[in-house]
Specification:
With about 450 residues, the protein is of the alpha/beta class. About 45% of the residues lie in helices and about 20% in strands.
């Protein structure tokens, strides 16, 4: 084997199997006789079969961006919790950094060199893996080539993005191809948005079926962010018009929901007696992810509404937070100010282990429907890094090894992994509990 465990990728028959899928659907089942929904179903069924029958890959999981702050934490978690026989690799553009990381890890994963500036290396990465998990962001700048490579190769894809524009554009550009090949494209597999998506899913399962449901989520956290997270936030703040345009484009491509309703309106600030705190609307990607799970899963009922808040005990603290975010947003619109801010915390930097050990999060949910009211909670430690690495790694392991529903294309964590991932996260120390019901 070459130095540092670096390995070459074998050739695969993915392209041939993808072509067969398309020919079978087009020739055996004439498209003219099928509705849009039936065509999607046919591609989904054959695509999933293509993925399951074409898994003779070198690796179960490849972690791309492994030397970044969250990437290294994810690699350490995988090394410490890998099931026996896991075939995995760490990947990135700097072989020396990867080799140094590998020396710290048990199980000695292979080292693969790939770069977002070299699409051919990303295609090779995707063809050699069953699951590719990437921490390389901001995703709107560095993510699409890998999504495209995984969609073409029938390879499951995971990321940590909280960028609505990126998720919407990937749906428009690559969902159809991923459905054909059987690839599952699962975004937001960290604190954005697993606690919120799976927490709402967990709450819905405590409520009656086939009735209108209302769920509110209230987020509390004490944590710091890394340079990579800060860079992604600055990028989003500077792209407001692009975000709106991508959302409109997605709306033109996404099938309409017939016979059911799922919505996530942005509410107004209020004092929420149910949690004893001021509730400030959070315009993050989390509510969109919850809404998309509700669109797909009929368990959410005929009329589902989700509202997403930050819970703050003291109003002055809430107002101060809003003012600070507004100031950063305004500065991000001016290129010199944006560059100055981006130099304050560099990607790859983050809080110390002692600081992370003091961090925590709690998302409390209040769900109502069919005459029943339930209070649930998802809680854990350091949300941005320790728990995000845990969620990310367990999501990759779930896609690689768990018995999951047959899905393909762009899907949420609740749709793709649901109960299986909740059980994994519970086993890893993240709380999912029913606090009260009546």
């Amino acid at each position: 084997m070459p130095p540092h465990g670096r390995r070459a990728f074998p050739c695969t028959a993915t392209a041939t199997s993808d072509l067969c899928v398309d020919l079978i659907v087009r020739l055996l089942v004439p498209h003219a006789s099928l509705s849009h929904r039936q065509r999607r179903f046919a591609h989904d069924r054959w695509g999933v079969m293509s993925r399951l029958n074409g898994m003779a890959r070198t690796y179960d999981i490849v972690l791309f961006g492994a030397t970044g702050f969250v990437g290294a934490l994810t690699a350490e978690y995988l090394a410490a919790h890998a099931p026996e026989g896991l075939r995995w690799a760490i990947a990135g553009r700097d072989e020396e950094k990867l080799a140094r990381l590998r020396e710290r890890l048990s199980g000695a994963p292979d080292v693969l060199v790939a770069d977002v500036a070299d699409p051919a290396s990303l295609r090779e990465l995707a063809r050699g893996a069953r699951v590719v998990a990437t921490t390389v962001g901001p995703y709107i700048l560095h993510g699409e080539e890998l999504v495209a490579a995984c969609a073409d190769a029938g390879t499951d894809y995971l990321d940590l993005t909280g960028e609505p524009e990126f998720v919407d554009l990937m749906y428009v550009r690559h969902d159809a191809r991923a459905r054909e090949t059987g690839a599952r494209l699962v975004h937001a597999c960290g604190f954005d948005s697993i606690p919120h998506d799976l927490g709402a899913y967990f709450t819905v399962r405590q409520l009656p079926e086939d009735v209108p449901l209302r769920v509110d989520g209230f987020v509390r956290a004490q944590a710091m962010f890394s340079g990579g997270t800060f860079a992604s936030a600055l990028t989003q703040f500077a792209r407001g018009r692009h975000i709106l345009a991508a959302a409109r484009d997605r709306g033109r491509h996404e099938p309409r929901l017939v016979g059911r309703r799922a919505h996530a309106p942005l509410s107004t600030p209020r004092f929420a007696k149910e949690v004893g705190a001021w509730a400030l609307p959070l315009p993050t990607i989390d509510a969109q992810i919850v809404q998309r799970s509700a669109r797909v899963l009929e368990r959410y009922g005929p009329d589902f509404r989700y509202r997403h808040y930050a819970a703050v005990e003291r109003l002055p603290v809430a107002l101060g937070g809003v003012t600070a975010v507004g100031a950063v947003f305004a500065a991000a619109q001016v290129p010199p100010a944006r560059r100055w801010l981006s130099d304050r915390i560099k990607p790859g930097e983050g809080p110390s282990a002692s600081r992370r050990a003091k961090s925590w999060f709690s998302v409390r949910f209040v769900g109502e429907g069919g005459g029943r009211r339930v209070f649930t909670e998802v809680a854990g430690g350091d949300p941005g890094y320790g728990e995000t690495a845990k969620m990310f790694a367990e999501s990759a392991l779930s896609l690689a090894f768990d018995d999951l529903p047959e899905t393909a294309g762009q899907v949420t964590t609740a749709v793709a992994m649901g109960d299986a991932l909740i059980e994994r996260l519970r086993g890893a120390g993240i709380t999912f509990r029913v606090a009260a019901s009546r």
